[in-house]
Amino acid sequence: MENINYKFEVFEGPLELLLTLVAKHKLNIDDIPIDLLCEQYMAYMNEAAMRNVDLACEFAYMASELMLIKSRMLLPRDPVKDEDPRKPLIDAMVEYQRAKLAASELSDLFAEYGSRMIKEQDDIAPDRTYVANHSADLLRAALVHVLTETRFSEKNMRSEFEGIVNAPRIPVETVMTNLIASLRTSELYLDSFFMQSESKQEIVAKFLSILELIKSHIVVVEESDDAADGITPVRCHARITLIGSDEDIKAAALDSYA
Q: 35 and 71 in contact (C-beta within 8 Å)?
């Protein structure tokens, strides 16, 4: 009959053997029964000796450490002042366990990325000799080409932007002139001034006109009770007052729209 061979597991070091024994017997690593662990460890050492397996001196050193911890556990000690004799061993086992997990993750990453090569980014200087004249027709042709490639026709794009392109243009200068003329004959308030607008474009033009006239010291907006922290709401009932002279109005018009 052939001899039956049993596989004798060889460990890289004593800490790996201790972790294997803890996992095998489902022990709590934070509260290791040192008697059982020492017994299992010595059984492995005896079996290794019977099979003529050469173990590193670290295994014999760990065996002596386990015996020392076991003897210290038998001595009386103060659980508050005295440190648990098992603590250095537990800390070493936990740290080794973390290292094993990290090595496993790094091994997977190395298997995936280890054969890849990284090329440094090339410094490409900008070409400042390019002086082509991009006319409006050329840009329009490029836009039509892009829209064609993206399945948007020029007709569809025209219809999308028709409201913006064909919106009525309201000159700010005209709004300023009409506002000054109104202030010469009657009182005007901020809320009614904006509420009489017929479109968003007119509201924007009126807003820019008010800002320009205030900056030029032609009109002032008197704050009402609705103002908070010096901020006047657009729709508040604040009076717009004309304070500039004819010379100021002419000078402001020349400076802004010359």
A: no
- Range 38-46 contact pairs with CB under 8 angstroms and sequence separation of 24 or more: 38/66, 38/67, 38/69, 38/70, 41/14, 41/17, 41/66, 42/66, 44/17
- Residues 212 and 257: their CA atoms lie apart, in Å, by 11
What is the per-residue pLDDT for 2?
43
Longest Cα–Cα distance in the chain: 127
Q: How far apart are CA 169 and CA 159, in angstroms?
A: 19
Phi, psi of 49 (to 5 degrees): -65, -40
User: Which positions of the chain have pLDDT values less than 50?
Assistant: 1-6, 257-258
Q: Which domains are assigned to the chain?
A: 14-111 (no CATH), 136-165 (no CATH), 172-257 (1.10.10)
